[in-house]
Amino acid sequence: MGDRDDRNDIGRRVQRLRAERGMTQRQLAEPAYTPAYISTLEAGRVRPSDEALRHLADRLGVGYEELVTGRPARLATDLRLRLTEAQRTLATEGAEQAAAQYTGLLAEAETYELAEERAAALLGLGECAVETGELAAGRQYFERAEQCLVDAGAPLPARVPALRGRALAHYLAGELRYAVYLLESTLDELNRGGLHDPDALLLLYASAIGPYMDMGAHARAAQAAELALALAPSAGDPALVARMHRSVARTLLAEGRLAEADASLAKAAELYRTLQLGTELANCHWMRGYVCAQNGELPRAEAEMREALAMLSATRAALYSSQVAVELADVLHRRGKSEEAAELLHGVLDDLSSERGAVHSAGAHRLLGIIAEDARDTEAAEEHYVRALSLLERAGAAGDLADLCRLLGDLLRRTGRVEAALDAYRTGLGHRTAPGTTTLGPAPAQPPL
C-alpha cells in the first residue's frame, strides 16, 4: 500500500509540474523516454527509477528531492537555519521568545514530515518549558523528541539531549532516584559501548551533579563535576563564532550551495549548544563552592557560588538561579551575614514549590528555620522545619532528612515537647543512609579521558 501511495504521489506531482510549465508528455519524455511511459507514470501505475526521476527533475527544473518528496529543495536547510536562530534566542534572550519560534518551526517540520528538525523543535520547546518551570510540559516535549529520534533510527549520542531533558524534569520535580537512573544508565551505555561523544558525556555528567548532591552522594557529585569540567569544550567567543557561521550559511543558502550551508549551520548549532551549557557549567562552579564550604573555605565558596548565580541570571534561568541562591544563602549565613541570607531566601521561595525544586525549597525553609532559631523565634523556626520535612519526604532526599529531623527534634526538646521530639528523632533514624550506597547502585563506567 505504501509503495502504491508513493507512486500515486509522484505521478500527481509530475503531472502538476508539467501542466504548470505548459509541457506536453512528449516534451517531458524526450529524448530518453516515451510519452506512453509518462502517461503510465502520471497515472500512478509505475514507480520511476532514480535515473528517470533525475531526468524528469532536470526537464521540470526542480530538485530531485522536491520531485520525490514534494518538499522544496531549500526547505530543510532553511528550517535548520531558523532552528539555530531559535537556539540563539534561548541562549541569549530567554525562554518565552524562543518558545514562540520553536512552536512555529515544529508545525512546519510536522507538515513536511522532517523527523530530525521535528525532534530539534520539540527539544527546544522542552528546554524552554523547563527554564520557565513548566516541568510536566517540558517532560512531555522531551519524551516526544526522544521517540521521534528513536523512530528515525538515531544513535544514542544524538538522543542524549532528550534523555537528559527527561532526567532534568524529573529531578526538578523532586523525583531524584529516577533522574539519577536515567543519567547513569545512559552514561553506562555510552561508555561501555565505546560511544565516547564528548558533548553527550559533558551534558550527562554536569546534569548528574544536582541529583547526586541532594541524595547525599557527595563523592559521585565531585567526580561528575571534575569529569564535566575536563570535557568542557573550549571556544574563544562561541556567540561570535556561531553568529559568523549563521551569516555564512545565509549567504551559501542564497547561492544554492545547500551542502555547504548545512555544514555552517551544524557548526553554529554546536556553538549555541555550548552557550546553553553555561547553565551546566554554572552547576560546576556551584559544586566547587560546595566543596570549598565543606572545607571551611567560606570566602572562596561565596565567590564560586556568586559566579554560578551570575552565570544563571545572565541566561534568565529562573529556576536554576533560585536553587543556587539557596546554597549561597547557606554560605552567607555561615559567614555571619544572616540578614542578607534571609532576604535572599525569601526572594527565591516564590519560584520554588513541591513540584518545582522541592529539595531546594526544603533547603530554603530549613535555613530560614535555623536563622529564626538564632533570633529565638521558635514558632517561626518550627513552621519552617515542618514545611521542609514534608518537602523532603515527598522527594525521597534521604541525605537531608536525617539532619532536618535532628534539628526539629532538638527544637521540640528545648521547648519541653519530649514525646514529639522523640518521634522526630525516630523519623530521622529511619532515613539514615551511607551516602551513595543504599540509594544508588554501582557507579557507571567512565570515559577514557
UniProtKB/TrEMBL annotation:
It comes from the Bacteria. Keywords: DNA-binding. Residues 433-443 have a biased composition (Low complexity). Residues 14-67 form the HTH cro/C1-type domain. SMART domains: HTH_XRE (SM00530), TPR (SM00028). One of its GO terms (cellular component) is cytosol. Residues 429-449 are annotated as: Disordered. GO terms for molecular function: DNA binding; DNA-binding transcription factor activity. It holds the Pfam family HTH_3. InterPro entries: Cro/C1-type_HTH, Lambda_DNA-bd_dom_sf, TPR-like_helical_dom_sf, TPR_rpt, TransReg_Diox_bact_type. PANTHER family: HTH-TYPE TRANSCRIPTIONAL REGULATOR (PTHR46797), METHYLPHOSPHONATE SYNTHASE (PTHR46797:SF1). This is HTH cro/C1-type domain-containing protein. It comes from Streptomyces lividans 1326.
